[in-house]
């Protein structure tokens, strides 16, 4: 089982990034997918979630209207489009997969996002 994130980097405030997470080793379409983030000295927090078929999404209040989660099941990939980035969005972003009814769940290794001028 693997979740591989990509797309992180350094961006100026107000800029955009798109994170990708590609899954392998499990049936992607059976899993709810989420993005979490963890800033230095802070707990990991849920950023956004999308259901297994992509019909429903949820966002943390801090990112609503700026971030969009989406998925492409044939490509086994989930995305996080991040717009109007703020310095407080700086964190390591993690991809997470949770089976829609069983207890299996998996984490990616994380990708660093730094928002700074």
Describe the structure in your own words.
- By secondary structure, this protein is mainly β.
- 0% of the residues lie in helices and 53% in strands.
- It is built from no helices and 11 strands.
- It has strands at 2-6, 9-11, 17-24, 31-38, 45-50, 57-59, 67-72, 77-82, 91-99, 105-107, 111-115.
- Strands 2, 4, 5, 6, 9, 10 and 11 form a 7-stranded mixed sheet that branches. It has a 4-stranded antiparallel sheet with strand order 1-3-8-7, with no helix packed on it.
- Strand 9 and strand 10 (105-107) form a beta hairpin.
- The radius of gyration is 13 Å and the shape is globular.
- The chain starts with a strand and ends with a strand.
- The mean pLDDT is 97.
Strand-helix topology:
Blueprint: E1 2-6, E2 9-11, E3 17-24, E4 31-38, E5 45-50, E6 57-59, E7 67-72, E8 77-82, E9 91-99, E10 105-107, E11 111-115
Parallel strand pairs: 2-11
Antiparallel strand pairs: 1-3, 3-8, 4-5, 4-9, 5-6, 7-8, 9-10, 9-11
